[in-house]
Structure formats: structure tokens, C-alpha cells
Amino acid sequence: MSTTFAQSFSRSKDPQKVSQNREINKADKSRNLLSIKQRLSKSTSINSSRVKIKKTVIKRYDTSLTRSLCSYVDSGLMNEALSLFESMQNLDTFHWNVMIKGYTNIGLYKEAIDFYLLMQYQGVKPDNFTYPFVIKSCVGLLSLIEGLKIHARLIKTGLDSDVFICNSLIVMYGKVGCIELAEEVFVKMTNRDLVSWNSMITGYVLAGDEWKLFWCFRKMQAFGLKPDRFGIISALAGCSLANYERLGKETHCYVIRGGHESNLMVQTSLIDMYCKGGNLDYAVELFKKVPCLNTVVHNAMIGGYARNGCPLEAFGCLVEMQQSGNANPDAITMVNLLPACAQLRDLFLGKSIHGFAIRNGFLPHLVLETALVDMYGKCGEPKLAERVFYLMKKRCLISCNAMLAAYVQNEWKRKAINLFLDIHEEGSIKLDAMTISSVLPAYAELASLRVGIQIHSCIIKLGFNVNTFVSNSLVDMYAKHGNLREARKIFDRLQSKDIVSWNTIIMAYGIHGCGKIAIDLFSEMQEKSIKPNSSTFVSVLSSCSISGLIDQGWEHFSSMKTDYGIDPGIEHYGCMVDLLGRSGNLDLARNFINEMPLVPTARIWGSLLAASRNNGDIVLAEEVAEQIFSLEHDNTGSYILLSNMYAEAGRWEDVERIRCLMNIKGLEQTIGTSMIELNTKTFRFINGDRSHSESYMIYNVLGIILGQIGETMNSPSFLRFRPRELIRKRSELPLTHSVRLALCFEAGKFVVSTVLKRNSETPGSEHLTNILVRLPIKSNMEDSIYWHTAPVEITVK
DNA sequence: AAATTATGAA
Question: Residue A265, CB, less than 7 Å from strand B?
């Protein structure tokens, strides 16, 4: 299949077409623009012609010159038209209108408005024919301010009752996003024609207000007007907005009854509607019946295949389009194909499309570039996404959001946060809820709760705290930072909880070892008749696994399929292996893996490897590691784990062998660190760390807390290192785990500062003990090899 | 002498 794509890409590489496209893109526009500005500044020549108008009022109209002017304008030859215009005498409103129309039609909106201003300056009065063009130019510039000025002028001159002008105004306000103003114009009109209604309906499509759209659609019929193809096309767009299947079919009936079935644009809209409503079969049926397929219909179908999870069919449609010879792919075709590449995770295909777009002169193109950023992000290539992003000439909110998502999906958290801050500080692009919920996972993973709280207040200021997506990310962020209470508070206050909200809060309790609360929340969710999805069960099963709720884990695992019809995925099997491994039942875990219907991944085996280490089963560990290395030869963690197990067993030759293997493969041991933030400073600890200047205090605190939970530390062992003591050193390692050291540092500092505030003297070691022993330490520390991934809550009465 | 509304897009 991929050779067909490659062939079809290279076949249409036509140098002539490429140069044509490029020319349209830039050359013409800039040339025109320059000459007009130069000529407009020489207003003396036009001035003199005005003088001549006054002198020769009686002189007969030169119709042949006027006719030439019109034909230049109609063929888009504005330079020639301008020369003729300047040389002409007897210029009246009609000539000016022709010029304004010409500039509007070729997209030189600024020049059209300049001409409109100039004609007034020259004393020529604009009439009802002038304004539709001028208003269209405002739409082209998306300039509400110019539009409002013109509207004011219309009210002053009394032209605001002209139906054509009012219709233009409705279109303008609809397109610049001021639907209320469009409504105002519409309501004030005394005679509304079909175009007025159609324009209003189109405005509602753009505003995304399908309710008012259909209200309008019905109201116009009550006034005795029959919807034509314009209104029907908008209504079809409204159906995909609303996603009402019945409404779509109802509107399809209008098409048939009105006899619009043969109209290509109507056919396209119908296909698009059925695609967006997920009714792909209907769309394909209609697509097959279209007699002359153009680029747009193909694009609608390609987009439909892509959005309905049929990426290969999307490419099939591209090949059909190229083989038909009637239609050529354009920039939008590329935009529609890129999500298909992302779904296939096929980087080669994505790059082919990128190359095709470059060769055909489609770039620069804001939407296409954004789609490229999105595709590279989803194909796991944040570097390429970044490259496209920073080469873009223009960027908008959506392109920034796409880049942020690409960073976050690929774990480039720092970059995501920096980009977010850049956008925020630069200020020209206004953030939305999507921006925030894209970047929050990056804040959740990085160790600074302080900055997370800053973002939270920023969210409240911007009013995004009511948004469900944002709140879900916030719940996750607080949970990952160990502040379960705040996470719960946000969850409880959230007005409209969706399935993600529930999944997140269940997982939050799960990762903190509060399996019971997690399961209670799961029941509560079911009582509220919210249907769990596949991710819900990942949350529930991990909660059971972490808290050692073996029976409940099995219950939920089997009820997934029987009660909810959800087939367990690889991640669910992973949770179960974890559960069995934690319970120490290695044989069961192993049989479970062998009997599961899916091919085990490295992560599944990794779960069993961890379990075999905790149970000291070195034979199983070796076997499992073999499986992992066959899947991922560079899995550093597994090498280290195996090496540690050999060390614990005193098998030094094997330790050495593993180290050599790692050297050969160029793998380095990564050192895990734990960070904690105190008074705006970040402190980093490694396991058994003694490098901190306050290590004495930290180990003091550690000793005290260990005493409270019944663990003891043979203090000298970490001071010296002798191979024979390695066994003990290894088994003691969790005692001085980096997470514990970080927490003890925080606890100690807290006590010191509290005591200092009270007594204004430095507390001694005994002092510290006295206070720490009395501290209520809230957490079930014994449950885990570390106490917790989250800070321990310490309160002093 | 002349005008206004439509299809596919992240």
C-alpha cells in the first residue's frame, strides 16, 4: 500500500503547478499592493481629475472607456484598471464602485477600503452599491472596528434600510463573531428576503448555536419562505454541530423535497454531515453516487474516513482522487490526511505528506502547519513538531495548543512550561481552557507545588476553574503533588463531573494507597449512574493492587467484561499481574501471563520482575529479564534490578557480567532523585544521601520516625562500604530512600522553624525528638517500601 | 451600467 502512496505523491509533482501555486501565494499580491500605495500617495493626479469633472459637467459620458474599465476589473487586472482610472475624466460614483469591487474581488481588502475613504475625501458620495463591497472587505480583514465605523456612517446617511446593505452587515457581524449585532440588524429590518434569513442562519453556524439556527430555519418557513440551497447547506452544517441523527435525516428530506440533490455543494455538505455524525456508511453511499467528484468532495470523504478511525481508507480515497484525474489534492487534503498518519503512528507517511506539501507550494499555511505539529507530536517526534512550529510565519492559539500538547505527550515538560509562560507573557495570543489543560500535566509531573498553586490562582483569575477539563487536570496535579485534600476539594466543587473526573479522583486515592476510598468512590459513581469506561477500571484495579485488595481486584476484573461489556486491555492485565505479584503469588502471576489472550509487553514482564525481586526469586527473575531484553534490549531498569539481585545473593561474577553487558550496549545507570521544595528553594536527594549540609538533622529525624513505625537503622552501614556488607546495605536501602530523606528534611525544617518562632532558640537533638514523637503522622507508612510518594502531613497543635 | 448568502480545515 505504501508504495502506491509514494507513487501517487511523486506522480503529481508537476513543476508548473508548483510555480503557479507559489505565485498565487505571494508575488501578485505584494506587487499590486506596492504600486497602489505609490499611486495613491500621488493623489494630485486624481485631484486634478476631480477639477476636470467640475469643469466638464455637461460633457458626454465616455461609455467605451467605462466598458474597458469594467472588463479589466472583471478579469482581475487591477493594475491596468488603475492606470485607466487615473487617466479617465468624468469620474462618478459608478467608476469608484467598479474599482472598489475589483479590489474586493481579488482580496486586496485594505486597498478597497482606502479607495472608499479616498472617494469621500474627493467629494464623491458612496451609494447603496458601494457598501456591499466595502463591508465585504471588512469581512476579509476581519476588522470589526472598520465595520462599526461604516455601520455608523450608514445610519447617518440613512442607507441602513437597504436590504442588500443590511444583508451584508448580517454576514459581517456573523463572521467577526458578533452574532448579537447581526441579530440586532436582522430584527430592525422591515423587509427581509431569503438572503437575510440565510445569512442569519450561516451566522448561527459560525457561532455554534444550533438551537437558534433551527429556530430560524423553521421561522422563515412560517413566514412563507422556502429554504433554498444556501439555507439548507447551513442547516446541514448545523446538524453536524448538534450531532442529532434525526435532525440530519430531516434536513436530508428538505434536500430531496427541494430538488437540491443534484447540487454538488449540497452533496458535499450531506457527505460531511454523515461523516461528522459517525454515519460513515451513509456518507460512502452518497459519495459513490456523486457524478463529478471534485477536490472538496474528496476532502470531505478523506476527512470522514480519518475522523471515523479508518486511516487506510482515507489514503485509499487519496489514490482514487489522483487516479480519477479530475481533482488534485490541495492543502486541506493534507490537513485531513495528517490525523490518519497519526492514527497509524506512521512517521514515514507523515513525512511523505509534509514533503508533498512543500513540493506543491502549500506552505506556509497556518492550518496545515498546525496539523503537522499535531501529527509529529502524536508520532512521538516532538523535535520535528518544534521545528515546524518555530518555522511558522504566523501562529495562533490552536497552533500553540498543538505544540504544547506535543511537548506534554512526549514528556518534554520543561519545554511545555516554558512555551506556556512565553505565550502568557507575550500576551498577543489569549489563552483558553485547552491551553491550560494541556500544560497542567507538565506542572503535575514537575516537583514544584508552589508553581502549581500559582497556576491554580491564574486559572481562577481567568475564570477557567469552572471548566471540567481544567478541573480534571487540577485534581490530577494536586494528587500527584500529594495534596489529596485539595484534589478532593476541587473534585467536590466541580459542577459538571464527567467520566474523566471520576477516573482521576479514583486514581488519586489509589496512588496514595487509599484503596478503600477509591472503591467507595467507584460505587458512588455507579449510584449516580455514570457508566465506567476502560480507564475507570485501570484506576480501580491499580487502587486494588497498590492497597493489596486482592479479592476485590479479581471481582472488578471479572465484572468488567460480564457487567459492563468492556474487554480487558493490556493495561488491565498489567494491573492484575501487579496485584498477583504484590500478593507474593509468583506462580499464579506467571500462569496468568501465559494464559492471557494478549501478547505480553515489556511492562507486563517488568511487573513480574519487580515481584520476583521482592520475593527473592532469582531464577524467575533471570527468566523474566530474558523476555524483557528480547523486547527491549535497552531496558536499563531491568539490568539494574537483576544486577542488584545478584549482589544481594553475593553472586559478584554475575554482577560484573551485567555491568559489562550494559557497557557494551552503552547503557548508563540512571540515578533516581527526590526533590522537595521549601521556601522557594528546591532540594534534591539521592538514596542514602549525606551530602546535604543538614544531614545530621535529617538522619536524626529519620531515626526518630523509624523508631515510631518499628523500623531500625544500623547507622554505621552507610558510612563505610565493604563488598561483604553489600547484602545488608542493599536490604537497608529502602530505609534511607531518597523520598524518605526529602520528607525528613521537610519535617525537620518545619519543626525547627516552629520551635524557633516560639522560643527564639535553636532546638537541640532531644528537643527535636520530643516534638517529633508527639507529632501525629497521618499516613499508613508501613504499607509501602517507601512511606509514601507524597509528603507526610504533619500538624503541630 | 452594478450588489448581498453556500461545500472541505487544526
Answer: yes
Domain definitions of chain A by residue range: 42-191, 386-609, 676-794
Rounded Cα distance, A790 and A79, in Å: 71
A283 CA vs B8 C1’ separation (Å): 14
Looking at CATH, the fold of the domain delimited by A386-609 is given as 1.25.40
Q: Which of A151, A176, A177, A179 is nearest to A165 (CA)?
A: A151
Is nucleic acid strand B under 7 Å from A469's C-beta?
no
Domain spanning A42-191, CATH architecture: Alpha Horseshoe (1.25)
Nearest to A168 by CA among A130, A136, A141: A136
Please give the radius of gyration of chain A, using alpha carbons only, rounded to the nearest integer.
35
Q: Which of residues 768-797 of A touch strand B (CB under 7 A)?
A: none
Which of residues 218 to 257 on A have a Cβ less than 7 angstroms from any strand B atom? 228-231, 233-234, 237
A82-A162-A121 Cα angle (round to 5)? 40
What is the SS3 assignment for A79-94?
HHHHHHHHHCCCCCHH
Residues 133-162 of A with CB under 7 A from strand B: 133, 136, 162
Q: Give Cα A309 distance to the centre of its chain.
A: 18
Instruction: Please state, in angstroms and rounded to a whole number, the distance separating the CA atoms of residues A516 and A529.
Output: 20
Provide the CA A107 to C1' B7 distance, Å, integer.
Answer: 20
Residues 63-122 of A with CB under 7 A from strand B: 66, 92-94, 97, 101
- What whole-number distance in Å separates Cα of residue A558 and Cα of residue A375? 37
Q: What b/e readout covers A379-395, taking b as 16+ CB neighbours within 10 angstroms?
A: bebbebbbebbeebeeb
**pLDDT averaged per 10 residues, chain A (length 797):** 44 44 43 47 41 41 85 92 90 94 94 94 93 96 93 93 95 94 95 95 93 93 92 93 83 92 93 92 93 92 95 94 90 96 94 95 93 96 95 93 95 91 88 90 80 88 90 92 89 91 93 90 91 92 89 91 90 90 86 89 89 86 88 84 83 87 83 76 83 85 75 48 42 69 81 67 60 47 35 33
Chain A residues 283 to 302 with C-beta below 7 Å from nucleic strand B? 295-297, 299-300
Closest-lying nucleotide for A263 based on CA to C1': B7
Stated in angstroms, how far is A777 CA from B3 C1'?
A: 79
Quick check: A194 CB within 7 A of strand B?
A: yes
- Closest-approach nucleotide to residue A175, Cα vs C1': B5
Same fold, A42-191 and A386-609: yes
The dihedral formed by the CA atoms of A485, A490, A494 and A499, expressed in degrees to the nearest 10: -70
Please enumerate in sequence order all residues whose Cβ is within 8 A of that of A544, keeping only pairs 6 or more positions apart, or say none.
A515, A519, A550, A552, A553, A556, A575, A579
Alpha helix (H) ranges present in A327-445?
A: 331-344, 347-359, 366-378, 382-391, 397-409, 413-426, 433-445
